[in-house]
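Hi there,

I know you've been waiting on this one. I reran it after we fixed the sequence typo, so this is the corrected version. Both the input and the resulting structure follow.
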Amino acid sequence: MAIFDSLGISGSGLMTHRKWLDAVSDNISNINTVRRTNEDAFQERFIVAQSVDYGSGGGGVRVARTEFGTGEGRMVHEPDHPLADAEGYVKYPDVDLGDQMTQLMMAQRGYQANLAVVERATSMYQAALQLGKG
């Protein structure tokens, strides 16, 4: 394990958690997006992470892929809505706010943990440089 591997590993964690936060915030911001009944509803995004060189001590993590939810959504009777069909229905996405808030907290905690590692590693490297001066 090289001296700066901790920065690379934590940096990859920061990037992955940032993408997770982006996906969750996009899902939450579109929770009330209305579509016509003949259109697909907003599809929530899911980030799938994958370890890189697991067990080697120098791999990190990356986003393996982005998956999307179904476009089925849920039908809501709102006859006064401008997008309502002849029977008065519109389509909302099938996004669970409670689940998204849980995902948001997990992604935020992971981001904070990786950021703390970067900050501590940086201060350790700076302290080591100061030892070399004296």
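Quick highlight: Strands lie at 45-51, 61-68, 74-77, 89-92.

Best,
R. S.
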